[in-house]
Write a structure and sequence with these properties.
Layout lengths: L1 H8 L32 H13 L4 H11 L11 H26 L5 H25 L1
């Protein structure tokens, strides 16, 4: 009689068929499967671990939160417009000089047009040197 009473008082639901004693960690919708390796010195590693322990996290969670929640200022170095213009002119002159050098290395002589371009490039380079000197000074 006593055993019948105990069976009736039990509040546990019987396990459905095929799922006897499932247990374990529940499935999460977005499981973390990717890892990032970080190179650091032994001292840096100890500091990271100590900081994580101080706030009650493991190093992985600590670094993830730090990386996802911390704003980092990105300073984009932009050159002034005159410097960018000088750079463009230098690239243009360099391309012309490369074409002339290729022709000379093949053994071809320069025609009048190429000589004029070479003289123009030399004058442009001298002007650029003056501009750079005035910009720097």
């Amino acid at each position: 009689m006593e055993s019948e009473v105990k069976k009736k008082i039990s509040t546990k639901d019987p396990a459905p068929l095929g799922r006897v004693n499932r247990g374990g960690r529940p499935n999460v919708p977005h499981k973390r499967r990717s890892s990032v390796s970080v190179m650091c010195t032994l001292i840096e590693k100890k500091i990271i671990e100590a900081n994580a322990k101080r706030v009650g996290m493991n190093p992985s969670v600590f670094l993830r939160n730090l990386g996802l929640n911390t704003r980092i200022e990105v300073r984009v170095k932009t050159l002034p417009k005159p410097v960018l213009e000088l750079r463009g002119m230098l690239n243009h002159i360099a391309a012309n000089l490369n074409q002339i050098a290729r022709r000379r290395n093949r053994g071809d002589d320069l025609n009048a047009m190429e000589r004029a371009l070479l003289d123009q490039d030399v004058r442009s380079l001298r002007g650029l040197v003056k501009n750079i000197n005035t910009y720097v000074s």
